[in-house]
């Protein structure tokens, strides 16, 4: 008797055929899985590259804030200093600075909206490189301190800053809070810096 008759004859041939088909199906499935994985990886790489290109053109999540710079020479006025934050340059940056004490006094005195805008300090900065700081100009701070609300407009969107300066033990202390200004969705805190000993209210918070 032949070998196939000893081990089952046609049955073994069928079995071998089934095994070959199964192996072929497994191989095809593996190849498809690998192919899909490669395509998914390539798609993610392309999406990541496109985002990097867009961020480099628009400015990504970069923002800026303003802080007062004080000098050892007391006769020199403090300067408002613009500071860049983020991985990408900021493009087409313009800034509007509102002194809240002046604004509230002018509102009580009946100033018109046009008059109020004339009293605001505005800066057309243009482009701001990464890690760049730029002095915008001197500022006069009253003895009781100053409250500034600062509004930024750039190619990558809008953001705003609350800047508070108070004198403590003959030293100026600063509190800064920067938030995005989305057209929709929730406001997000971008940056916050509060000097040690800055005056706080009874709840332990800054009076923003």
Task: Write up what this structure looks like.
The protein has 208 residues and is of the alpha+beta class. The chain has 2 domains: 3-57; 59-194, Sandwich (Immunoglobulin-like), CATH 2.60.40. It has 4 helices and 9 strands; from the N terminus they run H-H-E-E-E-H-H-E-E-E-E-E-E. Strands 4-3-6-7-8-9 form a 6-stranded antiparallel sheet. The protein has a 3-stranded antiparallel sheet with strand order 1-2-5, with no helix packed on it. Strand 7 and strand 8 form a beta hairpin. The chain is elongated and about 105 Å long.
Compact overview of the structure:
This protein has 208 residues and is of the alpha+beta class. It has helices spanning 3-6, 10-58, 100-108, 113-118; strands at residues 63-69, 79-85, 90-99, 121-128, 133-138, 146-154, 157-168, 171-180, 189-194. The N and C termini lie far apart (99 Å).
List keywords for this structure.
single chain, 208 residues, alpha+beta, Immunoglobulin-like, 2 domains, 6-stranded antiparallel sheet, 3-stranded antiparallel sheet, 4 helices, 9 strands, 33% helix, 36% strand
- CATH topology-level fold name of the largest domain: Immunoglobulin-like
Order of helices and strands: HHEEEHHEEEEEE
Level of helix content?
25-40%
Q: What is the count of distinct domains? A: 2
Q: What's the CATH first level of the largest domain?
A: Mainly Beta
Q: What's the architecture of the largest domain in CATH terms?
A: Sandwich
Distance between the termini: 99 Å
Rounded to an integer, what's the Rg over CA atoms? Answer: 32 Å
Question: pLDDT below 50 for ≥5 consecutive residues: which ranges?
Answer: none
Shape: elongated
Q: How would a crystallographer describe the biggest sheet? A: 6 strands, antiparallel
| Strand composition percent | 35-45%
Count of extended strands? 9
Strand order of the largest sheet: 4-3-6-7-8-9
What is the averaged pLDDT score?
Answer: 86
User: What structural class should be given to the helix and strand makeup?
Assistant: alpha+beta
Number of helices: 4
């Amino acid at each position: 008797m032949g070998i196939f008759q000893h081990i089952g004859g046609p049955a073994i041939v069928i079995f071998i055929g089934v095994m070959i088909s199964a192996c072929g199906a497994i191989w095809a499935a593996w190849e498809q899985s690998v192919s899909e994985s490669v395509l998914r990886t390539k798609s993610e790489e392309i999406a990541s590259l496109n985002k990097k290109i867009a961020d480099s053109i628009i400015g990504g999540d970069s923002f800026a804030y303003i802080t007062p710079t004080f000098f050892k020479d007391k006769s020199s006025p403090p300067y408002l200093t613009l500071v860049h934050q983020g991985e990408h340059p900021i493009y087409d940056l313009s800034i509007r600075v509102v002194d809240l004490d002046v604004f509230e006094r002018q509102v009580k005195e009946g100033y018109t909206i046009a008059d109020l805008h004339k009293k605001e300090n505005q800066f057309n900065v243009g482009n701001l490189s990464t890690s760049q700081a730029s002095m915008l100009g001197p500022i006069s701070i009253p003895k009781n301190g100053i409250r500034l609300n600062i509004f930024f407009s750039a190619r990558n969107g809008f953001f705003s800053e609350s800047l508070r300066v108070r004198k403590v033990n003959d030293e100026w202390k600063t509190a800064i809070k920067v938030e995005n200004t989305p057209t929709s969705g929730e406001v997000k805190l971008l940056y916050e810096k509060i000097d040690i000993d800055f005056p706080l209210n009874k709840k332990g918070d800054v009076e923003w």
